[in-house]
Amino acid sequence: MTPFAVFLALAMQDSTPRPVESVPAVDLRRYAGLWYEVARFPNRFQARCLGETTATYEPLPNGELRVVNSCRDAEQRLVRAEGRARLGDRRGPASRLKVRFAPRILSFLSMVWGDYWILDLTDDYGAALVGTPSREYLWVLSRTPQLDEAIYERLVATAAAQGFDVARLIRSRR
User: Which domains does the chain show, CATH number per domain?
Assistant: First the structure.
């Protein structure tokens, strides 16, 4: 192997980010409830959301979670989407979920289920960092409309350490 080929191989190896890691364990009953979006990566399915963005998770008897996302659009109308979340793998961990907002009849299709990984979570379940292993999506969530800046910075630092482009984060409007 030529010195240039060795250098190129090493450079490519160093630039490949490590896989995204979720927190090792989550108590989904404690995680359930109302969450306020503090920041997110821009995405197509929230393009109409201009403020007051929330997510509510409700445990269901079958082990899934009912998910209700809502926000205000430009006309101040409430926009709602209801879906389901389930374990990404029945063997766990509970921090790696799959979420769908497509109609139930389509739930057998794997493509309607998106990754929802809890990447960081404060001990009191007061704030969370949620993203995808592809690094395409990222959210900072809080139990209250305002999040302490030090906690926000901690969550953003976690995202950056996991290879997310945190410069893409946009703060949510209240």
Answer: 20-171 (2.40.128.20)
